[in-house]
Design brief:
Two copies of one chain form a homodimer. The first copy, chain A, has 151 residues and is mainly alpha-helical. The first copy, chain A, has six helices and two strands. The first copy, chain A, has helices at 5-24, 31-43, 48-55, 59-71, 93-115, 119-150; strands at 75-79, 87-91. In chain A, helix 3 (48-55) crosses helix 4 (59-71). The longest helix of chain A is centred in the C-terminal third of the chain and has 32 residues, at 119-150. The structure holds a DNA duplex (23 and 23 nucleotides).
DNA sequence: TATTGTTATACTCTATAACTATA
DNA sequence: TATAGTTATAGAGTATAACAATA
């Protein structure tokens, strides 16, 4: 019943999820809504199509998330300057503040992780994790390729 | 824009989630339902209350998950031998087979992770991750304690 | 009285399909 | 004809509250 490396990674995933759930408790924010906010912070004002692509969800899904975020004043829809079919979704100043807070928490959590290990362990972790990410990404790509070819 | 250790862990979490979604595509299985199956495989036949506690969700939630799993013949409700209010939920033979397959996939994925790194990296990863899990767990415990005390 | 599981209700995330307005 | 976003509909996960049967 020894935990494998995979088990350990899954445990960490669960802990992160719990942490996020705790952080958002009592706010209208959820994981999906926050994903939209992170995308906006990274890409700047975006059309809903762009958000849908970035998050790999349907445009319909984005409509609902943006509705919710807009009703709580985290984001604002503004007219697209050249395409009258589209909106530009942008963070409001309240949304910017929320993102700044989240980025700060992110930085602090990262510092906690860094401080939990020795510098050598930290370097080894980064290397090992890079290798694992590369392998997982390759596996995903393969799997998707074989799925597409079956279609 | 260098990825921090935290970013890397989050990337891995996402890759696992994608992998799971791909593995369950086309089946009636979902992450939540599979969590019930894993719990039953680990604990043996359980009351719905026990499942609710193990998964930290409400009993009402378990009712729905067990309904779905039972309708697809992964689990079976049987009368509790001594408590006529309760059911014992158990894996069916089809459910056992599905779990055996999943455990096999789990083992293979773990082998992929192991083979993606050198033995020294693997050892370093395990150590570092253990330290990080310990730190994260401590943080969660603190956070929950302060939340409870505020109540 | 307390506990087990259910019905009732509600909110969120997600998807597909049909539709409107615009390109 | 194609694209951006919405309405309509549906399934899944989750929660609280009220209730039945049983402990």
């Amino acid at each position: 019943m020894t935990a494998t490396l995979l088990d350990k990674f899954l445990t960490i995933s669960n802990l992160f999820q719990e942490d996020m759930a705790r952080a958002f408790a009592g706010t209208p924010l959820t994981e999906a809504r926050v994903a939209v906010l992170w995308t906006l912070a990274a890409q700047g004002p975006s059309t809903q199509q762009a958000l849908a692509e970035a998050l790999s969800v349907t445009p319909r899904n984005i409509s609902g998330l943006v509705d919710a975020l807009e009703s709580h004043d985290y984001v604002q829809r503004t007219a697209h300057p050249t395409d009258r079919r589209a909106f530009l979704v942008a963070l409001t100043s309240a949304g910017e503040k929320a993102m700044a807070r989240m980025q700060e928490e992110h930085t602090q959590l990262n510092a906690e992780l860094r401080d939990a290990v020795t510098p050598e362990q930290h370097r080894a972790l980064e290397e090992g994790i890079d290798a694992i990410i590369a392998r997982l990404t390759a596996l995903m790509t393969e799997a998707q390729a074989s799925k597409v070819s079956k279609k």
